[in-house]
Amino acid sequence: MPSPVDLVDLPFLREALFEIVLLSVAGGVVGAWVLLRRLAFYSHAVGSATFPGLVTADATGISPTLLALAVALGYAGGVGAVRAEGERSEAWTALLLVAALATGVILASDVFESGASVDRLLFGTLLGLDASDLWLSGACAVAALAATLAFGRVWAAAGFDPDAAGALGLRTRWADLGLLALVALAAVAAIPAVGALLVSAVFILPAASARLLARSVRGLIGWAVVLALAEGATGLYLAYWLDAPPGPPIAVLGAATYATLAVTAAVSGLRAAAVPA
Amino acid sequence: MSAPRVEVDDLAVGYGGAPALTGVSFTAAAGESVCVLGPNGGGKTTLFRALLGELRPLTGTLSVAARPAYLAQTERTRLDFPVNALDVALMGALAGGPWWRPPSRAAREAAEGALERVGLAGRAGVAFGELSGGERRRALLARALVQDSPVLLLDEPLAGVDPASADLLDSVFRSLRDEGRTLLVSTHDVASAARFDAALCLNGRQVAFGAPAEALTRATLEATYGHELIVLRESGAERMITIQHHHEH
């Protein structure tokens, strides 16, 4: 069993840890909004939808980040347009997701014959994180915090009571599009470390657990960041120990944390109900 | 009398098909309260949505002096949202203030004042989802009060509210009117209409508009409610009530 000190002693792990810290801030903040605005499926889909872009970039030598960002923002724009038209957006989100994943697989297996690097794209890697990955995650964390300060009240009011937003005179269309774009940016930032298929591990799982602990929007964001940090750092250590990509252990830890908190909440709720007030 | 705050002339509105509401003409001035009566599907909410600018007039004109504060009839609020009653009331301040900044101290005081006004002063810190149905309704009314609009559209504000709170809200409506605000309040309660300056009866079209004593005759109420109207005779005097079919959305 390796020492946890390796996380800061070994340069490649130190970089990975730094990446996880930045992603936890971005993912925790964005994840709280994803949960409050019921965008969980979208956030999962936008990460996975970048897959064909990543495969193409991998094979052609174009920057995977730029190509993934282009695909993700295009996807965000498409979903935003469908939502603005008032259509049921879930089916469209799913349709676009399946099309993107299938295209990616065909590109990977038949066109570029990428082989081994596909699972790195899908599940993340500890090795080969470079400075641009860290910069993107840092920029995303800053953007998430800044957007929360600017748009947080509008996002909360519109999420709490969509019908009232219009009566309050809020122009939610641009604020909502901004949120979709922010989720897309965060998903792309998370891909190198946790992989296209598991980006929701750093968004949805910590925020869903935080919802069981928080009683305010601010508390939800705070708890989501703290849990994302704890799950990310522990997951990274497990990945190093088990010689696995970091995405899966982080996702499993996130799910286990949620399950534990949910069961605890249910049991204490039952106890509270059993004791007469 | 000053220029009307709300002016509607021969209005018809609908949702794409046949008009849901036709022939509506009325005015409401500053400090006037109008009771909007009608069966479910009679066009009360449709009228409010037209006044909010959410539905375009098919024919006719309407003008509202300011963006109205609105209390919706059906709640689509999310009970799982991590906000308390004070947070909800504070959302009303988004209407006028800078939305990109944290709420000002004045907004906070306005929200606390509005909660006190609707009788929720002691419940400010309670999670919205843990409030009773009537308390939630009052918290949403507080949000509309914080909006501080000269025109308020309240769609069945007393539905699900207990009698004591209903009395409290009645006095809130009176004081809003005394402040010079214009109120349109929809209700099923024919008896309460007498406390308003005017009554507007809708049943797919405008059946009557005028001072309650004149507008609310047995004939107009029958035309408004049809078979939903029940006339009770108690020692000679007639009392009219309506059967309420509350629709769940």
Structure description:
The complex is a heterodimer of chains A (277) and B (249). Chain A contains 13 helices and no strands. Chain A is mainly α and 277 residues long. Chain A has one domain (6-274): ABC transporter involved in vitamin B12 uptake, BtuC (Orthogonal Bundle), CATH 1.10.3470.10. In chain A, helix 11 runs parallel beside helix 13. Chain A is globular and about 55 Å long. In chain B, helix 2 (85-91) packs across helix 3, helix 2 (85-91) runs parallel beside helix 4 (133-146) and helix 3 (105-117) packs across helix 4 (133-146). Chain B has helices at residues 44-51, 85-91, 105-117, 133-146, 163-178, 212-215, 218-225; strands at residues 6-14, 19-28, 33-37, 59-64, 69-71, 151-155, 182-187, 198-202, 206-210, 229-234, 237-242. The longest helix of chain B is centred in the C-terminal third of the chain and has 16 residues, at 163-178. In chain B, strand 1 (6-14) and strand 2 form a beta hairpin. Chain B is built from seven helices and eleven strands. The A-B interface holds A 36, 149-151, 153-154, 156-157, 159-164, 166-170, 211, 214-217, 219-220 and B 52, 54, 67-70, 72, 76-78, 80-84, 87-88, 91-92, 94-95, 99-100, 102-103, 127-128, 140, 143, 147.
